[in-house]
Amino acid sequence: MMITANDPKRESWLTVSKNSDFPIQNIPFGVFLTKDDIVTIGTRIGDYAIDLSALQMLGYLDGIELTDDVFLQDSLNYFISAGKKTWRSVRNRIADIFDKENTVLQLNKKHREVVIFTIDDVEMQLPVYIGDYTDFYSSKEHATNVGKMFRDPENALLPNWLHIPVGYHGRSSTIIPSGINIKRPMGQTMPPGATSPVFGPSKRIDFELETGFITTDVNFLGESIPVNEAEDYIFGMVLLNDWSARDVQKWEYVPLGPFLAKNFATSISPWVITMDALEPFRTKSPAQTPTPLPYLQQTGNNTFDIHLEVYLQPQNENEYLVSQSNFKYLYWTMSQQLAHHTVNGCRVNAGDLMGSGTISGPTPNSFGSMLELSWGGKNPLKLGPNITRSFIEDYDTVIMKGFCQNEQIRIGFGEVKNTLLPA
Questions:
Q1: Which of 111, 142, 307, 340 is the catalytic position?
Q2: SS3 of residue 413 by DSSP
Q3: Quick one: which of 302, 35, 350 has its CA closest to 165?
Q4: Is 225 left (phi over 0), alpha (psi -120 to 50) or beta?
Q5: For the chain, what is the radius of gyration of the CA atoms?
Q6: Of 6, 36, 284, 364, which sits 20 to 30 A from 329 (CA to CA)?
Q7: What is the pLDDT along the chain (423 residues), one digit of tens a residue?
Q8: Catalytic site residue 341?
Q9: Distance CA 95, CA 88 (A)
Q10: What angle do CA 116, 122, 127 make, to 5 degrees?
Q11: Is the pTM of this model over 0.85?
């Protein structure tokens, strides 16, 4: 089935600003709460949220194989389980309904009133029920920077790093949507020069610039997914901030890796951008040396040119741009991550979230964490007059944005934005 929704010449009868992240070619999926306290599944065009359950009940999605209650849910999981053919059919139909040449809904005021909301009149929710969350460690630049800081600068990467997409299982219960405030976590740390640990608020709270991908039902227990088929099981992507307590992490991570330093909060953007929407922005991933084992080998353009930005906003201050990176810098692709995740027969379900790992680029302004940007606190960032930061302070707000853009269209992710509160 062709992806007709991606036609770059298509225009909507809804007003869409030139630099909007959500033109009619995007058509993401999310969950929102209306003014009447009704939770529904929807999409977005410009600054309008569209109720897909209302659209279906009014007959606009007739002919697509959908159950009657697929959009009457508080998460996208049920819809995601329907598979790629269904996702594509729904996106194509939405594009047709809101095409400026289609006047059926456009001229029906009564229908428009129950289908279309301004974005300020809805409250975005977590888009999926996340049963499992895996966070990878797939940026060579990030892994190298961390290795230089904490291990041997001459051997920054661990021996396995160039052979497998390294990852760990995170905590799904503390994944939150954009807009939710986060408390500074408590924990054990080992102060410099001390002989025993102390307990108290973390003093080194950090962001990690990541993306996440959300899967459909991938396999049965004991089955693996070939790398060249893995993308068929990826529903879409979100922005992801993997909040980190660096002082807690330094004390606890040996021998089993991240625990309390990572599981207090992970935030994601509310709109899931489909793989179909990202199709025009495919590009090559970095060359892999040594050549991975056969089950991880792939050819062609298997990553995406997604520009990423991080802003830090101190209380009652402006937003300050602190990092500009790109998804295409990641050494390991999403397909390789999912293929490796299932190669041992691990089951992956609809709604599972896979974090990319911190996405750092090759230059200092493209580093994806405060740990790297301030080089462990040794080189504080100057944000503005009398404002410096080594790590995130109380009442600072972290804002991450992402978008793809070519000469014809811009497809964006919106933002993930959260404020750090005192412990």
A1: 142
A2: strand
A3: 302
A4: beta
A5: 22
A6: 6
A7: 899 999 999 999 999 999 999 999 999 999 999 988 999 999 999 999 999 999 999 999 999 999 999 999 999 999 999 999 999 999 999 999 999 999 999 999 999 999 999 999 999 999 999 999 999 999 999 999 999 998 888 889 999 999 999 999 999 999 999 999 999 999 999 999 999 999 999 999 999 999 999 999 999 999 999 999 999 999 999 999 999 999 999 999 999 999 999 999 999 999 999 999 999 999 999 999 999 999 999 999 999 999 999 999 999 999 999 999 999 999 999 999 999 999 999 999 999 999 999 999 999 999 999 999 999 999 999 998 999 999 999 999 999 999 999 999 999 999 999 999 999
A8: no
A9: 11
A10: 100
A11: yes
Q: Residues near 249 by Cβ (< 8 Å), separated by ≥ 6?
A: 258, 261, 262
- What CA–CA distance (Å, rounded) separates 101 from 78? 32
Cα separation, 154 vs 256, whole angstroms: 24
Q: What is the DSSP string of 135-185?
A: EE---HHHHHHHHHHHS-GGG-S-TTTTTS--EEE--GGGEEETT--EEPP
